[in-house]
Amino acid sequence: MRIVFQLSLVWMAVGLLAASPAAAQGKTVLVIDATAQMSAKLGQVRKIDAAKTASADAARRMDPQSSLGVWAFGIDPARKCEDKVALVPMQAAGTAAPALDKALSPVQPKAGRAPVLGALQAALAAAGEPKDAAISAVIIAGTGDDCLSDICTGAKTLHSIYPNAKLSVLGVSMSEQPAASLTCAAKAMGGEFIAVKSASDLDKLLRQTLGISGDAKPQKASAAAPSAPEPAKTQGSDKMLAMAAPDQGAPAAPPAPAEVKPAAPPAPQPEPNALLSAVLADGQPPLDAGVTWEIYKIATTATGQQKTAELPSWVGGGGKAQARLAEGHYAVRAACGFASAEDSITVNGGKAEKTVVLNAGTIAAEGLQTQGAGAAEGVFFTLSRKKQGGGLEVLGRSSGTPTAFHVNAGDYVLSASAGPAALTSTVKVEAGKVSAVRMALNVGTLEMKAYEAEGAAGTVPAWHRIYSAAGAGKKPLLTAGGTAPRVQLPAGDYRLETVYGNARVESAFSIAAGQTAAKSVVLSAGEAKISVPAGKPARVCAVYEEGADRGAGPVGRAAGTAMSFILRAGVYSAECRAQGTPAPAKPVEFRVVAGETQETKLQE
After folding, report:
1. Which CATH number fits domain 21-209: 3.40.50.410, 2.60.40.1180, 3.40.50.790, 3.30.1330.10?
2. Which terminus of the chain, N or C, has fewer Cβ atoms within 10 Å?
3. Is the preceding peptide bond at 130 cis, omega within 30 degrees of 0?
4. Cis link prior to 262 (omega < 30° from 0)?
5. What is the pLDDT of residues 332-347, one digit of tens each?
6. What residues contact 216, with CB distance under 8 A and at least 6 apart?
7. What is the pTM of this model?
8. What per-residue confidence (pLDDT) applies to 250?
């Protein structure tokens, strides 16, 4: 389905996509994936080598006065989910850049476990106080987190601790499932997931994400390190210095100040002789932002063939490019979003100008709850195109709505998902035009709250598992936790399982498209505390509901000197034994009252 939006909406969305954080205004944390997955190829180079090159180059181009800390995970297989290390501790980017070159050199992809969020948490903690400082956090990853079962909830927790830390994830040729998880994590921390398809993409996108200007030059290492300040002297050291110094009589006159010569004016920069601009289609105005430029020298071989250099002579960003080139023939490659085009330019004497026609249009996509209703929450877009021989090639992903993709003219497949709801549409893009797609996902919103008892004032942090009404025994469609989680579901009937401690309640609900359903679950649960007399050894306790079949096993089990159980209201018995002893002591009975805490002390 294709409906044309107003162009102002589209270009506003494009402008939002082009905007990037200014890393120089705060601290920057960079986390690099070094797991075995990063040994795979990204074009002609390994993923890890592309990440090393892009990271080192970005560090050299950062404002030297800004702060940068670089971490990695996946370096030491023996550490598994604790495998996270600071390559460069938080410091001024001017000193971090040369240190990063040295730290990255020995890094090779080895480990199989990927503590993505754990490494981010360690990096943020190492960034220092205050915790509400502005931090730009960037993860370069080729795989998802396999050390945390719910990375999205983990990211929300991190956001509550570091409210002004914005996370951007550069997913290097990543499969759909980890990309979806990291998209949710990035969105939970105010950022976005960006798919990376090539080494040049990674270099460009990392600089854009870090807010590095397209014309920023690499910083050169200073010839000599600044002298360290003289350490403060204690009273004892003053005395020792006085005893060791010979009698000099009257203090000598201070030396005359050295003559200060005015700094020489900077050498004038040569005027650019190659002027480049890009348009989406013939007859349209030049783009003023969001274009990446690469210029390659074309040489003529001894046999008369023309050969394009493998490495670019000049790389830059911005709507228009101005470069100083030696005389000769060059290939010019321009990219804007997922649209790209190549042309040529000849520099011979004076200035040469070239306008590259991208032959591209824009896909403006929006996910709706239902036709005519408001925007759906948490929509994840995947843009693909058909490959020769069948199948789809994924071009990019976006977690924003509305979102905009710049692509070359042609036919594409756009998929939108929000939780278990998914919809796919074909889109035809014409050069210079906007193909706007409104995708009605036929979803509604469910707000869940759990209470210990009827009339309780506050909610409890329960887990909610949502199943299809006809899906008894199957895996849950969604799992959500917290005091008041909110999810989107396709219209229909569902079964809800709410778990709080050892208390579990099942209920049913329905979702209507475009509407919000509030579901309150009363658990009729309370807390039972069982403690061991002071000075006595720890116990292992199994709790059974009074009158229930013991063959089904206990409803709860715990060990220690002070144990706590969340249970449904009722009468229970606890069988406790000292650790290492074969038989339990005499069972102790206790009652659980909804919304209350009851304490029971074990007797000898």
Report:
1. 3.40.50.410
2. C
3. yes
4. no
5. 999 888 899 999 999 9
6. 61, 62, 207
7. 0.55
8. 43
| Distance from C-alpha of 62 to C-alpha of 208, rounded to nearest angstrom | 11
Q: What is the pLDDT of residues 68-83, one digit of tens each?
A: 999 999 888 778 888 8
Where in the chain are all domains bearing CATH 3.40.50.410?
Answer: 21-209
- Structure confidence by residue, pLDDT tens digits, 11-30: 334 343 333 333 334 799 99
Residue span(s) of the chain under CATH 2.60.40.10 come to 271-439, 443-522, 525-601
Distance from C-alpha of 29 to C-alpha of 219, rounded to nearest angstrom: 19
501: left (phi over 0), alpha (psi -120 to 50) or beta: left
pLDDT at 220: 63
Q: Which of 35, 48, 121, 123 is nearest to 86 (CA)?
A: 123
Number of CB atoms found within 10 A of residue 200's CB: 19
> Which DSSP string corresponds to 158-175?
HHHHSTTEEEEEEEES--
Under 8 Å CB-to-CB from 172, ≥6 apart: which residues? 33, 38, 42, 47, 50, 51, 140, 141, 142, 196, 202
CATH of 271-439, one of 3.40.930.10, 2.60.40.10, 3.30.470.10, 2.70.70.10: 2.60.40.10
pLDDT of residue 160: 85
CATH code for 443-522? 2.60.40.10
**Predicted confidence (pLDDT) at residue 321 exceeds the cutoff of 60:** yes
- Helix, coil or strand: residue 29: strand
Under the banding of pLDDT at 50, 70 and 90, the label for residue 111 is: low
Q: Which residues contact 164 (CB under 8 A, 6 or more apart)?
A: 132, 133, 134, 135
pLDDT for 1 equals 37
Residue pair 200/294 in contact by the 8 Å Cβ criterion: yes
Reading the block at residue 357, the tokens are 């026609």
Q: Which CATH architecture has domain 525-601?
A: Sandwich (2.60)
